[in-house]
Each structure stands twice: as C-alpha cells, then as structure tokens.
Amino acid sequence: MNNIFIDSHMEEIIGRIDNLTPNSEPRWGIMNVAQMLAHCSSFQDIAMGIYVPQRHWLGKLIGPLVKSIIYNDKPLKPNTPTVPEARITDEKEFEFERGELKRKLRAFQANGPQKCANHLHPFFGKLTPEQWGKGTYKHLDHHLKQFGV
User: Fold this and answer.
1) How does pLDDT run across 18-61, given as a tens digit for each residue?
2) Rounded distance, CA 115 to CA 27, Å?
3) At the top level of its lineage, which domain of life is listed (predicted)?
4) Which single residue of 39, 44, 79, 110 has CA 20 to 30 Å from 33?
5) Are 108 and 48 in contact (CB under 8 A)?
6) According to the model, what pLDDT value does residue 148 have?
C-alpha cells in the first residue's frame, strides 16, 4: 500500500493533482473537481489535527472494527460515505483549491508521521502514523481516480 509519507508516492499524487483541469468531469458522485479538491483539503485538516470533529456514535461502535478499509490494498468503492464535516456543497475556485490541497499535503508530509499520532479519525478512531499515511494516500487516490487522473 502506498503511503503519503514516502517521497515518490507524494510526488505521484502531486503530479496527478497537477493533471486535473477546471473541466475535469467526475466518473461518479456529485462533487465537481473544485469541490473534490476542497473536500480532500478539509480531510487534510482532520489528518493534521487542525480540525478535530466529534466522533459519531456509529464510528465509535464499528469504526475500530472496519478501520482497515482505509489503509488496506483494496480500493475504496465509488460513492463511499464521508464524514459530514468534509462534505462540500458550495461552489469553490479550482486554482485556489488545488494550491491549498498541495500546500497542505506538503505540510503534512513535512510534519512527519509523528505529528498525526495523537488525534483520532472521526470515524475509525485511533490510527497509527503509518495508517494515517496510507489512509491519506488511499483517500486521495480514490478521488483522483474519480476524476480520471
């Protein structure tokens, strides 16, 4: 499984983000490309501990039991549910959102795995730094495939 903390995996993700255009169309889902970038950026705020949403009761109940879906080798399915705090419905500006996401990803990687060891995922609960790195890559890969890159 790829990990965003590995330089070559990070550069691959950045290259794919750079291949998006304002006209990139989704293969599934309701977000446009700018909204998807904002969604991924909001997830980075969670992964970095900048924003720590409250855990939903369902996540507390089953999250720890199913958390391997976020870091195993099996791709996420189209239309996989997200945490409410990361749902983006308002219009966003493509270039701004792309730049913000790349900035946050570089900061996340530069901060290193140890910076994501002390906060909970809003659904899955406690993740190790390796699981955060793999989960971040997998989430980004899922959405970049959604837009064909």
Assistant:
1) 999 999 999 999 999 999 999 999 999 999 989 888 888 888 99
2) 34
3) Bacteria
4) 110
5) yes
6) 97
Neighbour tally for 78: CB within 10 Å = 12
pLDDT at residue 144 is higher than 90: yes
Give helix 94-111 / helix 129-146 axis angle, nearest 10°.
160
**Burial code of 123-140, b = ≥16 C-beta within 10 A, e = fewer?**
bbeebebebbbbbbbbbb
Residues 6+ apart with CB under 8 A from 42: 51, 85, 86, 88
Sign of the torsion formed by the C-alpha atoms of 120, 121, 127 and 131: negative
**Cα 39–Cα 44–Cα 47 angle in degrees, nearest 5:** 130
The reported pLDDT for the residue numbered 53 is 84
Say how far apart CA 84 and CA 109 lie, in whole Å.
25
